[in-house]
Amino acid sequence: MHLCSIMTEAELYSVYKGVYVPKDFHPPECLRYYEEFNFRQDDILIVTYPKSGTTWMQEIVPLIKSKGDLTPVQTIPNWDRVPWLEEHRASILNLEERPSPRIFATHFHYNMMPESFFKVKPRVLYVLRHPKDVFTSSFHYHKMASFLVNPGTVDEFMEKFLTGKVMFGSWFDHVKGWTHVKDQEHILYIFYEEMIMDLKESVRKMSSFLGKSLSQEVIADIADHCVFKNMKTNKMSNYSLVSSEIFDQKKSAFLRKGTTGDWKNTLTEAQSDHFDAVYEEKMKNVKFHFVWD
Ligand code: A3P
């Protein structure tokens, strides 16, 4: 048995601003680095609740920036190409010296963002995905990632997920925080489901928000490179460069299924009904329009 499969939240996570973060990747000094980070107005920040399509965006956005030139996605692993600002690597990558526009990712909630974010208002691409699919993706991910607590049964993991006792806290809080932002001019909301339906249109929307005019041909090339089956073969993006001690992709691939509605293969009717009831209750005052409502 893998040692981590018996390790608890207290052993694997620390609590930062009220949410769990995996200890090994987020030591206190790197969280401090993010607190003091200076944004530029033309920075591009990909914000996601985990398992909502971060890796996909780490492929698409650099290609929009490079106007379809594949060099960045074929030569730089996604975690250095679009680093997570809260992760230890961010503090050793000399991000201050990167030319604009810099591209970053974060899983932080809106109310966890550092001071400079609220002053500078960099451009944000906020990606949302149906929470039952986020749950399902996360359930499989927790089985293969050694730095995460073993999910246990679907019922056990669902209890943790719905009460926010998982890494980066509650999906509901994350989504409510980011969709209730008053000044939304610097934020583009993107749904995973829309990207699945029409990736070219999503690439067009993102490039227009980012002020990059791309030809139809370049947009089509980017979308073609980023469809699941093609992206899955990119070793700079499929996490095959990471040791199997950290990601055991024999248990579950990082780029696992890349579809919508896979929760139907994981949840029983009763589990799905319970999830819906909690969703209804927690989201009842939310005005934002979700594509699945
Ligand atoms: P599944 O586990 O449902 O397959 P994140 O990058 O935020 O951790 O999210 C991971 C999820 O996004 C996984 O979902 C993964 O397969 C999916 N994903 C990554 N690249 C994708 C792509 N090109 N097309 C569709 N889904 C993709």
Structure description:
The chain has 293 residues and is α/β, with parallel strands linked by helices. The chain has a single domain, classed as 3-Layer(aba) Sandwich (Rossmann fold). It contains 14 helices and six strands. The strands form two sheets. The protein has a four-stranded parallel sheet with strand order 4-3-5-6, sandwiched between helices. Strands 1-2 form a two-stranded antiparallel ribbon. A hairpin with a 2-residue loop joins strand 1 and strand 2. Helix 3 packs antiparallel against helix 12. The longest helix has 14 residues. It is globular, with a radius of gyration of 18 Å. The structure holds adenosine-3'-5'-diphosphate (A3P). The site of adenosine-3'-5'-diphosphate (A3P) has 19 residues, from helix 3, helix 7 and helix 13.
